[in-house]
Amino acid sequence: MPHGEPLLAIRGLNVEFGLPARPVRAVADADLTLAPGEILGIAGESGSGKTTLCAAVMRTLPRTARVSGRVEFAGKELLSLPEREMARLRGRDLAMVLQNPMTSLDPLYTIGNQLEEVLRERRRGGGAGRLGSAVEVLRRVHLTAPELRLRQYPHQLSGGMRQRVLVGMATAAAPRLLIADEPTTALDASIQDEILILFRELRESAGTAVVIVTHDLSAIRRLSDRVVIMYAGRIVEEGPTVEVFRAPRHPYTQALLASLPRIEEEEVVLQPIPGQVPDLARLPPGCAFAARCPAAIPLCREERPRERTVGERHRVFCWRAGEGAA
Ligand SMILES: Nc1ncnc2c1ncn2[C@@H]1O[C@H](COP(=O)(O)OP(=O)(O)OP(=O)(O)O)[C@@H](O)[C@H]1O
């Protein structure tokens, strides 16, 4: 790839749940790379495998999940890494922020107690050297009155403040990769942007790469360098954000973006597309989107589309993408 060694390289990743005889393939044949400091947005309807993909990288999938393929992070293959080494990576080089900031903080302890505990852990793990104090962590995420916040309990903070605290905790050791799974879904629109700006700052100050899973396509457009669109467990399109938004090539991406207004500031969530997401345990032999696709031809129902390159680093899995029809 043109940007040197990738920080993260996912190759042929498969994640299955359920009985082996009737597996639910939550992620199928995923290939994806991320350069250091790059911001990648992942979008797709509910159940398309976004969370499962992220959890496979963090190795936080339930034990019932069957995982195959490779996940290389900074030269290490994570899927076969001993849990002890994986635990050391998590929270230091690899961090995660989740959707619900309330459940990630312990209601019985003050913010200060919890932050100190995280900092102690990071120091034990040989943090990246810029940990600083708890107050500094809160300043870095622009929390007002940080000294006061340290003495408060989670319920005394607003949702936006709690998410700032969690972003601060997750990124205290300047991780090389931050995975944010719908980090702003539970927050007011006005606060969402402020949280997203934190990610950008983190990239600027610490060179952190960010994977952000969101239903908010306009956030992806504003924030990310590259975008991945997932459908029924598969990556269907991937490319530079500007290019994918300007000229989406997969009919599914086109349908998602059709409703996107020109005004950049407006929040745009995924619009429902006619038809239903197929049952992952009973996928058709061809393209999983064929039944809902306005451009489908018989081949689409028979054979799974192969990867096509349609621009620099822009790829799409659609039989019709090369024809200009899609
Ligand atoms: N622990 C599990 N056991 C069984 N099936 C699971 C499990 N976790 C996820 N799945 C299935 O895997 C598929 C992908 O789910 P996933 O949560 O990754 O989708 P998603 O794109 O993140 O959805 P959302 O936007 O709603 O978070 C779904 O069909 C889901 O039912």
TrEMBL record:
One of its GO terms (molecular function) is ATP binding. It is a peripheral membrane protein. It is found in: Cell inner membrane. The keyword Cell membrane applies. The keyword Zinc-finger does not apply. Keywords: ATP-binding, Cell membrane, Membrane, Nucleotide-binding, Transport. GO terms for biological process: peptide transport; transmembrane transport. Residues 10-257 form the ABC transporter domain. It comes from the Bacteria. Transmembrane segments: none annotated. Its main location: membrane. SMART domains: AAA. Belongs to the ABC transporter superfamily. This is ABC transporter ATP-binding protein. It comes from Caldovatus sediminis.
